[in-house]
C-alpha cells in the first residue's frame, strides 16, 4: 500500500510540473559536439585564443553559478602554470581602469544572456579590456559583445529549471 501511495505521489508531482521534461542528452549531441571541436577551424580558433591569452599581462575570469565555479578553477589553473589570473564571483565587484589595463577578461556563461555577466563584459569593454567569451552558442548577447568567442555548440539542458 505504501509503495502504491508513494508511486501515486511521484506521478502527481511529475504531472504538476510547469516545464515539460527534457529528453535525455543523447549520443547524437555528443557526436555533434566532437565533430564541432575536432576540426581545423576550431583548432585555428583555439590558436587565436592562445595568442590573445599570451599577449595579456593578466587574466580575469568571470562567471556565475556553475560557470563561476569553472572561472575559479580557470584562474587557479592559469596561475599554476605561471599566468597571473584571478576570478570575480561578486556581481557587484567594481571594474576599474587599473584592473582592466593590459588584462584579458575570460567570461564564461552557458546561455550568454545572464544580465550580471553581460554587465561585467560591457564594463570590461568600456575600460578597454579585451573580452574572450566562452558560451554554448556564438549568437548569444555575450558572444556578440566579446572581442573573441569560443562556443561549444551543445544544446542547453535544464533540470528543474537550472543548468
Notes on the structure:
By secondary structure, the chain is α/β, with parallel strands linked by helices. The protein has a single domain (30-151), classed as 3-Layer(aba) Sandwich (Rossmann fold), CATH 3.40.50. 47% of the residues lie in helices and 15% in strands. The protein is built from seven helices and five strands. Strands 2-1-3-4-5 form a five-stranded parallel sheet, sandwiched between helices. Strand 3, helix 6 and strand 4 (130-135) form a beta-alpha-beta unit. The longest helix has 15 residues, at 2-16. It is globular and about 45 Å long. The two termini are 36 Å apart.
Q: Which features does this protein show?
A:
163 residues; Rossmann fold; 7 helices; 5-stranded parallel beta sheet; alpha/beta
In short:
Helices cover 47% and strands 15% of the residues.
Please summarize the sheet with the most strands. 5 strands, parallel
Briefly note the structural class of the backbone: alpha/beta
Gyration radius (Cα, Å) is 19 Å
The tally of beta strands, per DSSP, is: 5
Q: Give the overall average pLDDT.
A: 84
> How many distinct helices?
7
Do you know the CATH architecture?
3-Layer(aba) Sandwich
CATH class: Alpha Beta
- CATH fold-level label: Rossmann fold
Strand residue percentage: 15-25%
**CATH homologous superfamily annotation:** Glucose-6-phosphate isomerase like protein, domain 1
Q: How does the overall form come out from the CA principal axes?
A: globular
* Share in helix: 40-55%
